[in-house]
Design a protein that fits this description.
CATH architecture of the largest domain: Alpha-Beta Complex
Oligomer: single chain
Structural class: alpha+beta
Strand order of the largest sheet: 1-2-4-3
Order of helices and strands: HHHHHHEEHEE
Shape: globular
CATH superfamily of the largest domain: H-NOX domain
Helix content: 40-55%
Distance between the termini: 40 Å
Number of strands: 4
Strand content: 15-25%
Largest sheet: 4 strands, antiparallel
CATH class of the largest domain: Alpha Beta
Radius of gyration: 16 Å
């Protein structure tokens, strides 16, 4: 698991010039992120949130995520399936359990159980990027209880076109 995660973090740090490069392979993933946060002066959770948003820009990851739902609300309803979907790519990556609930005021809550430090921040960045990708207008807030999502308009803007294969014709 550490190799796959380390490579993703190394690529993220290389592509984000303001973060200050951390020597590849010399540190475990969490320590690489802490070092990059220190060098850049950026709070750790903010850096990890940026990593989550960056992951959505990786074509293979984006396709896997977009395959999870027709729109952002559908994607959220299937979020608990994400750990199993990631195992389609690699069975070495252990993701925490993800649960979605709705509060009495209609807000959606994502909770993560047994996740490593920063996982909620990572997921928050990923959700923010996916909301943009689907064209949803929403407010995503990290709290001590999890991630609160308010979606006043799930079709605010045009969603990015999705085809399962990058070679699929428009046809």
């Amino acid at each position: 698991m550490d190799d796959l995660v380390s490579r993703a973090i190394e690529k993220f740090l290389r592509e984000e010039p303001t973060l200050g490069w951390v020597e590849a392979g010399l540190l475990p993933p969490g320590q690489m992120l802490h070092e990059a946060a220190l060098r850049s002066g950026k709070p750790f959770d903010e850096l990890v949130e940026d990593l989550g948003a960056w992951m959505v820009r990786q074509d293979e990851i984006w396709r896997l995520l977009r395959f999870c739902g027709q729109d952002f609300l559908d994607f959220l309803l299937r979020l608990d399936e994400l750990p199993e979907r990631i195992r389609l790519i690699s069975d070495d990556v252990n993701l925490p359990q993800i649960a979605l609930s709705r509060s009495h005021d209609g807000l959606l809550w994502v909770t993560v159980s047994d996740g490593p430090p920063g996982w909620t921040a990572f997921l928050s960045g990923l959700l923010r990027a996916m909301a943009d990708d689907y064209g949803a207008l929403c407010v995503i807030t990290r709290t001590a209880d999890g991630i609160c999502i308010d979606v006043p308009d799930s079709a605010f803007a045009e969603a990015r076109t999705f085809r399962l294969s990058p070679r699929a014709s428009l046809g």
